[in-house]
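PROTEIN DATA CARD
Card holder: Serine--glyoxylate transaminase
Chain length: 388
Origin: Methylomonas methanica
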Amino acid sequence: MAGRNHLFIPGPTNTPHEVLSAMHVPMEDHRSPIFPNLFKPLLEDLKKVFRTEAGQCFVFPATGTAGWEVALTNCLNPGDKVLIYRFGQFAHLWMDAARKLGFDVEAHEVEWGKGIPLDAMEARLKEDKNHEIKAVLATHNETSTGVTSDIAGVRKAMDAAGHPALLFVDGVSSIASLEFRMDDWGVDGAISGSQKGFMLPAGAAILAFSQKALAAVETSTFPRSFFSLKDQMNANKDGYTPYTPSTPMLHGLRKALDLLLEEGMDNVYARHHRLGEGVRRAVAAWGLQICAQPGFESDTVTAIVVPADKDARHVISTAYNKYNISLGAGLTEVAGKVFRIGHIGDMNDVSLLGAIAGVEMAMLDNGFDIKPGSGVAAAIEYYRSTAK
Ligand SMILES: *Cc1c(COP(=O)(O)O)cnc(C)c1O
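Structure generated from the sequence above:
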């Protein structure tokens, strides 16, 4: 099909051409004396995206899923109790990973569409007088439902309970796009991946750990090898890596960081907010609902609920086969009930209007009772009136 495939899945996201060009390099010697000139400033500049001065950043040749494992296996001890709220597929998978690794997982079910219930969490932590819970696992942006949780609120609840557990945050679909403040929010382990807000191919787990978490590494007896933070630290201090890094990925990350920092992180957050709000206005104009309940709306991905007599999979297949647009599917509990528009990373108003228009065409083709042009009209009015 002529023209581009329009990629509106929430990851991998679109890679800017500057980043693609930066990755197009010959292979190089990763033990050379000049390799640290690339790698050391990368680790420093990543801190500006995680908003941490006290913490330390890491890049593993892996994906976000590995980030969960790095946090759990480096900072905890075998069988430690961890607390998690399960309100979407990614929270579910993190819970599952912790169980497979033998941790004592206390999981609480939360309706999909909502995020971390702060009052219930505070009450649970207050109850835990002997501090048996060693870590809270918090999914910041639940990509499967388009739900953003309040991580500052999680920290507040932990402090109000006087609880010393570590706070690990899955920020795979939030960091580098939604507001994220590692130091201010007292996050001990922040987990991200290359293929979402960082606008790169999949293949890097991009992480940050607080000094408190790194101190816990010293006493942890959990077995680990490839995912050892200590091995990374030993090599990273001289600007090297413990095993072969993906050098094209690191060049791409250099360019992606330059783009993000040039735009300014606060502007990146504001851009995503505008993008998300335009999509929400379009959905309202179609007379449809989003999966996220009020107060939990995500600015990087919107999950749109289809009427009970429709199957969201048909919208996705029509959009792909007829209009060359890739949308996100509903996962497990919401399969067929929602489709998702990713608006994360290298995205602007007019690109996103392509998705809104394409979704509208696909819904009309599938007999949805919507007014042609209504979503596009609502979005363009919002984007026009808020464009600078
Ligand atoms: C994509 C995603 C993951 C998984 O990352 P992979 O890179 O696919 O391993 C984890 N958590 C969230 C919230 C995600 O969006």
